[in-house]
Amino acid sequence: MTAEDTAAPARRGRPGYDRQQVLEVAVRLFNEQGYDATSVSDLAGELGVTKSALYHHFDSKSAILEVALDDALSGLESALDDAVRSHSDASAQLRALVRGAVGVLTARQSRVTLLLRVRGNSDVEQSALRRRREFDQRVAAIVRAAQAEGMIRADIDAAVATRLIFGMINSLVEWYRPGGPVDPDELADDVLRATFDGLQA
Amino acid sequence: MTAEDTAAPARRGRPGYDRQQVLEVAVRLFNEQGYDATSVSDLAGELGVTKSALYHHFDSKSAILEVALDDALSGLESALDDAVRSHSDASAQLRALVRGAVGVLTARQSRVTLLLRVRGNSDVEQSALRRRREFDQRVAAIVRAAQAEGMIRADIDAAVATRLIFGMINSLVEWYRPGGPVDPDELADDVLRATFDGLQA
DNA sequence: GTCTATATTAGGATAGAC
DNA sequence: GTCTATCCTAATATAGAC
């Protein structure tokens, strides 16, 4: 209904998954139980196949994680690039970025959730962390510039402000559920209002 | 210097840990690597003792987790109780709660971090989750009441507002470090300003 | 309070048939 | 694309001595 882009001829019988379907279920399980707490057996059980079948789709458990993390990072980086490209002043870029980030978090919720929980326990996780730190630094630079432009109040440290804003945004993955009662666009508006105008009446 | 309440006669030689010291190191490791990714061997290695030595202090790995989670939850519950007891109107209670929660998060950072990452993979985790949900519901009720009092803007859903506020607060555990450049009290002020007045100049 | 075994199970991963 | 069988390692936990 929503995403069936690949030209895959919609499988029928119980068994018979493609890479995308495996990825989908894996990411969901990783989020429900945590990556480390999810065994390949768990995943196989959830899909109703054996462990061996999974190794036909992915070389390793961490290869699944790698694909998911790349997807999340690409989304966030694109949102940042778009925001920077579409606006010349930092204040407008920041607003666009907040809206874009909320968009990515709601659209790719499960993969971004995975990204935000990465601790650096493997090469895959460490390289994702590096890439995420680069993203964070670019964002911090924009917040600093927006403060210099007078958009962000001067009585708060720009680095702290950056973390508070994205702390609020990132926390969405903990409760937002696609298809739930909260509309993604309205949510973006709420976050913009909450961060910049405040929740006080 | 800070917490040496127990009457333990300050050990000397390398080996020789008490429960508190083991707990301290365990919680730090759990946060660095994730609970599931941290083996009892890792912990033993970090302490410079064998695995068996650890089982002298705690019955199981999850027993360590249980103590840490209880401490975090107790702190948050106390902050909530204090806020409710000290103020009669919801608006003041909410402000006191935000300040108190930031205080608990900064003072018991490592244990609260652990709590916020719990997924419910065991009985210990599930009972912590239940207790946390109770806390969340009490908080949501206060936010609703504060909105009814006219303190919180009416154009945002109270449940969403609650999650945004505590999303920002809880995100502190991701970057705040005791003894670092950010003062806990100033941070509480910043969070109050950011959530209620907004970050806009 | 710690140590040297050791039991036991589960985990990630591979070989090769269907 | 999936299966059975299997390898190998690492994980939690225990027994009993020092």
From TrEMBL, chains A, B:
PROSITE patterns hit by this protein: HTH_TETR_2
Highest taxon of the lineage: Bacteria
Alphabetically ordered keywords of this record: DNA-binding, Transcription, Transcription regulation
Portion annotated as DNA-binding: 39-58
A family per Pfam: TetR_C_24
Residues covered by the HTH tetR-type domain: 16-76
Name of the protein described by the UniProt record: TetR/AcrR family transcriptional regulator
Origin species: Microbacterium candidum
Lineage: Bacteria, Bacillati, Actinomycetota, Actinomycetes, Micrococcales
